[in-house]
Amino acid sequence: MADAMIRVPAHVRDRLAVLAEAQDTSIRSLIQDFAESTFTQEELDASAERAKTYLSTYLGVDVTPAEEEAIQRKMDALEAADAVACADDTEAAEKPADAPSTPPDAAAA
Q1: FRET pair for 77, CA 20 to 30 Å: which of 23, 66, 71, 108?
Q2: What pTM value is reported for the model?
Q3: CA triplet 91, 97, 98: central angle to 5 degrees?
């Protein structure tokens, strides 16, 4: 397979290098994994249609629009909760171990 060059700003290249090192891989592999595992909305929609067809054809289950909406709401809630958890983890990781849990002026109030 022929290689292609992708031009990005230096700060993006530096960030990719940090991410690749943290995953013990190369920038090339990092970008390849991203490209192979990330889908467009059109691809996701097509996959959902294939899944619905499979459920109907082989399992006799017809998913209603109301059920689809309920599933989407649950997935959105899980994604939002995951984003909050990731933000909390990031905040905790960035906070020094000896930092007070409340700001000094808040503790005095």
Answers
A1: 23
A2: 0.61
A3: 125
